[in-house]
Fold:
Amino acid sequence: MSDIKHVYDVIIIGGGPAGATAAHDLARQGRDVLLIDRDGRIKPCGGAIPTKAISEFDIPASQLKARIGAARIISPSGNKVSMEIGDIGFVGMVDRDLFDPFLRERAQKAGAGLMFGTFKTLEYNAAGDVELVVIRKEDGEELKLVARTVIGADGANSAVRRAVFGPDVRPPYVFAYHEIVKSPETPNPEKFDANRCDVIYDGEISPDFYGWVFPHGEHTSVGCGSAHKGHSLKEATRKLREDAGLADAETIREEGAPLPLKPMRRWDDGKRVVLAGDSAGVVAPSSGEGIYYAMLTGRLCGEAVVDLMQTQKASALRTPRKRFMRDHGRVFFVLGMLQWIWYSSDKRREQFVTMCEDADVQRLTWESYLNKRLVRKEPMAHLRVMFKDLKQLIGLSPRTS
Structure:
C-alpha cells in the first residue's frame, strides 16, 4: 500500500451531481480538494432538471438535450391526461453519461483534483484527520490518503455511509431500472412525442411507483421502479417500450440501481464526515427526482465543511441536513403522503390521474416543481385541490363512482 502523506482539506467520494458540485464550490474558494469517482458508473435516471437547477447551478444550454413543455399522465385504464407547463418554464433533460463528466470537468477547471478509483475504508488517526484507503483504477494500487474532512456522495449504496454508520443504517428505497434507446426519427405523437414526458401509473408497470418515457433528444430513457422484489422491472420496461412504439428502437445501454426515497435522520458522524445526495437519501418520494436535490446538498455540505475548518466545531456538519429539511422537508413529507395514498392500488392510481385533469392541480404542480417550493400565494387554489382530493378518496367523483 502506498502511503500519501499529503493532507487534503477535503476528499469527496463520488463524482455525480452532489460530489462534483461540492468539489467545484470548494475549489473555487481555494480549498485543497480531491474528488474520487468510480469512472464508468452511470446512474439510471430520467434526467429531468427543473428551471431552478438550471439557473442556480449555472447549467449551460449545451447540456440540455431537450426542453420539455408538457407531461402526459397515463392511468391503468389508459386514460391520458396532458399537463402543459405553459409560459412559466420548462423541464430540462440531460444525459447522465455526458452531464456527470461535465460537472467533474468543471470542478477540475476550478482547481479540484480528480482520481478514478474505489473507496474501501476510513478511520481517524491520532491527529484527528481522516485516513482513507482507495484503490486507484489506472493501476489497481491501494492508496492511503489523508483529509481533514470527507464528503460521502457515493450513491444509494454508499460505502462511506456503511463505514460511518454500519451496514444496517440506510434509507428506504425502490429499485429503478431503465433502458436508454435511440429516439425514433418519425415519432407517432399518440405513442411518443419528443417534447413530452410520459408518466405511467399502472400496477402492471409498477405496483408501488411508476413507469416513464423521457425523451432526451437523440435518446430516450424508458424505465420504472418498484420496491417489490418479485416484480420484473425488465418485463415492465419491455411493455413500456411496446406501448410507446419503441420496441424495435436500438438499445444504447441498460442500467439499474436503488433509489432512496427519504432523507437520512443523520448525515454526519459528529466529527469530520458528512453525506450528500443519494447517500443521504435525498431523492423525492412520489417523483423520484434527485439531480437538483443532490446538487443542493453538495453545495450545503461544501459550505458546512468550510465552516468546520474555520471554527473547528464539528457541529457545523449538522447544518446541511437542518437547512435542507427547513427548506424542503415539507415538500418531501407531502410527496411521501401522495405516494402512500395514491400509488397504493390501481383504483387509487385511476383517481389520481383523473384528479390531474384539474387546472388548479396542474398549475400548482408545475409551479412547485419548477421552483422547488410549495406554492403559498394561492390559498383558495390549495383549498379547492384539498376538497377535490377528498372527493376522489371517498368516491364522490362522478368519474370514479
